[in-house]
TrEMBL record:
Pfam families: UDPGT. This is Glycosyltransferase. It comes from Lolium multiflorum. Gene3D superfamilies: Glycogen Phosphorylase B. PANTHER family: GLYCOSYLTRANSFERASE (PTHR48048:SF26).
């Protein structure tokens, strides 16, 4: 959202970012917003008070359901904030804030979604209200059955978003309700670019994802990724990378929530050791050792010593954008969170896809089958990926003809991503088209007090 705000600022628009304070994390959210505000003084941040609890009877079968409920109950505060402003040209909301469409409609403000995942995922979600009720069973019971949606490659049922696997679950029913409402928005601002997902974008623009219903325009304005930090003290892993040959290092990072069991960490360690390649690995404690402060306790005995001449292991966090843009990095083992995928693309680094949760398995399909900028770590859907598979995929990307083809494809994708953001590029023009739409509808929607 901050990177989108910067686009508005560069076009001369004032921006307010409203953040809902979760009821149980007030101090954490306040500190996070304060840090964002300090780093982005041109953007106004408003922390909306945490909605009051409905009482002890509050019980949600999924954390996502709780989040959706909190956001829904925050609509009253959002409405008051918007009413207090002298003029509002548009309301841009997160994908979980579907019920904020009601606030926008009440105040005659055009509402848009910021869609922060793949456009291919959006095509699937638009079509799910038509597809889901007619499916013979829940996706969780359909295994490797190929599902066909407009604009994307076939997706195995087990690779669908984890929230939609059981159609009888509360979270699946709630998400389906949200997907049904999404086309009510004036449009979608997507963190992608035309060249990367042209087929999905074409399906959306031709309305085949929402048969019998109009599809709002989708403006691909990305890639919007956090810029690499160029000032301040450098992380030790970057200094280590400086001493490594070009494209010689495999970077493994699985996001802020990605964790593996101790057994799986052991398999990864053995695979890296047997591969013979240099590596930079961000390791988080396994659930069974979550309070362990010593990194060695999470890894096989002797692993760090055996690989000290070609490996660097970081606990919990590394500056991913800076790492990927370093010339020494030759492959990226990723959980396929969309921001990570985009960072890999803009850095020109081939990906080894190891999806963990949410829509990441769908992103894996887009990366491997549609974009052809990565390969899949086979067995990711099972309890354990074996060391032999880790070794094989590292060798394939780092030292094979297929790996060379991936690098050539990524070189093109990197250039196309940069071109999209240039003046007159597809993403620049899409944002201009969005702004023209705002001007066109201002007479109907613009709010004045």
């Amino acid at each position: 959202m901050v990177e989108l705000a910067k686009l508005f600022l560069r076009r001369g628009h004032a921006v307010i970012i409203a953040v809902v304070n979760p009821p149980d994390k007030d101090a954490v959210s306040a500190d996070a917003v304060a840090r964002l505000a300090a780093a982005n003084p041109a953007i106004t941040f408003r922390l909306l008070p945490a909605p009051s609890s409905c009482g002890e009877e509050d019980h949600f079968s999924s954390p996502i359901l709780k989040t959706i409920d909190v956001l829904r109950r925050a609509n009253a505060e959002l409405r008051e904030l918007l009413r207090a402003l002298p003029a509002v040209d548009a309301l841009v909301v997160d994908m979980f804030c579907v019920d904020a469409l009601d606030v926008a409609a009440d105040l005659a403000i055009p509402a848009y979604f910021l869609y922060a995942s793949a456009v291919g995922d959006l095509a699937v979600m638009f079509h799910l209200p038509y597809y889901y009720p007619a499916a013979p069973s829940s996706f969780k019971d359909m295994g490797t059955t190929a599902l066909h949606f407009p604009g994307v490659p076939p997706i195995r049922a087990l690779d669908m978003s984890t929230t939609m696997l059981d159609r009888e679950s509360d979270i699946a029913k709630e998400r389906l309700r949200q997907y049904t409402r999404m086309p009510e928005a004036r449009g979608f601002l997507a963190n992608s670019f035309d060249w990367l997902e042209s087929r999905a974008l074409e399906a959306l623009r031709h309305g085949v994802c929402t048969p019998g219903r109009s599809t709002p325009p989708v403006y691909c304005i990305g890639p919007l990724v956090l810029p690499a930090q160029t000032s301040g003290e450098r992380h030790p892993c970057l200094q280590w990378l400086d001493a490594q040959p070009e494209r010689s290092v495999v970077f493994l990072c699985f996001g802020s929530l990605g964790t593996f069991s101790a057994a799986q960490l052991g398999e990864v360690a053995r695979g890296l050791e047997k591969s013979g390649h240099r590596f930079l690995w961000v390791v988080r404690n396994p659930p069974e050792h979550k309070d362990e402060s010593v990194l060695e306790a999470s890894l096989p005995e002797g692993f760090l010593e055996k690989t000290a001449d070609r490996g660097f292991v970081v606990k919990n966090w590394a500056p991913q954008a800076e790492v990927l843009q370093h010339g020494a990095v030759g492959a990226f083992v990723t959980h396929c969170g969309w921001n990570s995928v985009l960072e890999g693309i803009v850095s020109g680094v081939p990906m080894i896809c190891w999806p963990l949760y949410a829509e990441q398995r769908m992103n894996k399909v887009h990366v491997v089958e549609e974009m052809k900028v990565g390969v899949a770590m086979e067995g990711y859907e099972k309890e354990i990926v074996k060391a032999e598979e880790v070794e094989a995929k590292v060798r394939l990307v780092m030292a094979s003809e297929e790996g060379n083809k991936l690098r050539k494809r990524l070189s093109v994708a990197k250039k196309m991503a940069a071109d999209a953001l240039k003046k007159g590029g597809s993403s620049d023009m899409a944002f201009e088209e969005f702004l023209r739409d705002l001007e066109k509808c201002s007479s109907d929607y613009k709010k004045t007090m």
